Amino acid sequence: MQVRSWGFTHVYVWTDSPNFHYNPHSHPGVTTHLILSGEFTVTYPDDEPGRKEAFGPGARIDVAAGKIHEVWIGKEGCTYVIGE
Questions:
Q1: Which residue spans adopt a coiled-coil conformation according to this UniProt entry (predicted)?
Q2: pLDDT (tens digit per residue) in 39-76
Q3: Pick from 67, 65, 58: which is nearest to 84 by CA?
Q4: Topology at the third CATH level for domain 2-83
């Protein structure tokens, strides 16, 4: 799987339902998200409050260890590969 070649050992596919929202949170290690379908919008409240960036199929989003982020899923849901 492509994400493993980036150095991630725990890799899995995840699907979120339409319009799902993840409150601000962080992870203990670096994570990557490779979007397969749908839309994934992220913001980093500690950096630029209010600035959201949307990603679609083929996009890769890396989140640093301990980085607080908030996520919204698009109206069609979103399927992505997560690497940890």
A1: none
A2: 999 999 998 877 899 999 999 999 999 999 999 999 99
A3: 65
A4: Jelly Rolls (2.60.120)
